[in-house]
Design goal:
The protein has four helices and no strands. By secondary structure, the chain is mainly α. It starts with a helix and ends with a helix.
Length: about 190
């Protein structure tokens, strides 16, 4: 029963961990891409196109997970998610256009940096929503587990009471049989005399 309980906890906890993890990873890669764009925009040196492209591709892969993973379903109806996803899709199109430029135009990079900056608070709100959803689900699971535990305790007490009642009945029957046996022995002695 203990192993079964641990397996259940691990199975129900995984999707919740996954939601927080995916949201955190997407936000982290968003921030890294935003930082890389800001550095490229402000740099007097030639743009590190390879590093910027790598940041962009990693960011896109995290967004893909954020949008197309069954674990995210718990977030999909939250207003934070619903508000952010269309804006992210617009950002993906904008960033893909900028990244496909040869060479990248500084004005396009500046515009992209501005778009990234405006999305920062929305991404942070999504991370907070993921934490909120997770904590609510964990609280619900804890309440359910406590309820089940209380049911087990109540059933155990009922079983103990039943066992005590049966033990009392058996003891009473034993006492009755003992009295009857003693009475028969006494009657047998009287008849034998």
């Amino acid at each position: 029963e203990f192993e079964q309980k641990n397996r259940l906890i691990q199975q129900t906890g995984r999707p919740l961990d996954s939601v927080i993890s995916m949201t955190h990873q997407a936000e982290r890669e968003f921030l890294r891409f935003r930082q890389a764009v800001a550095l490229a925009e402000q740099s007097l040196q030639p743009i590190d196109l390879e590093g910027l492209t790598l940041r962009h591709q990693i960011f896109l892969s995290r967004l893909e997970l954020l949008q197309n993973n069954p674990s995210i379903d718990v977030l999909s109806q939250r207003s934070e998610y619903l508000a952010l996803i269309p804006r992210l899709q617009d950002l993906v199109q904008q960033s893909s256009r900028v990244m496909s430029m040869q060479p990248i135009e500084p004005t396009a990079l500046t515009t992209l940096a501005g778009s990234l900056d405006t999305l920062g608070p929305a991404f942070q709100a999504l991370s907070l929503a993921a934490a909120s959803v997770t904590s609510q689900q964990l609280a619900r699971q804890a309440d359910e587990a406590l309820s089940k535990q209380n049911e087990v305790i109540a059933l155990t007490l009922a079983l103990l009471l039943l066992l005590f009642l049966l033990a009392g009945l058996l003891f009473k029957q034993y006492q009755t049989q003992k009295k009857e046996r003693l009475a028969r022995q006494a009657l047998t002695r009287e008849l034998g005399e």
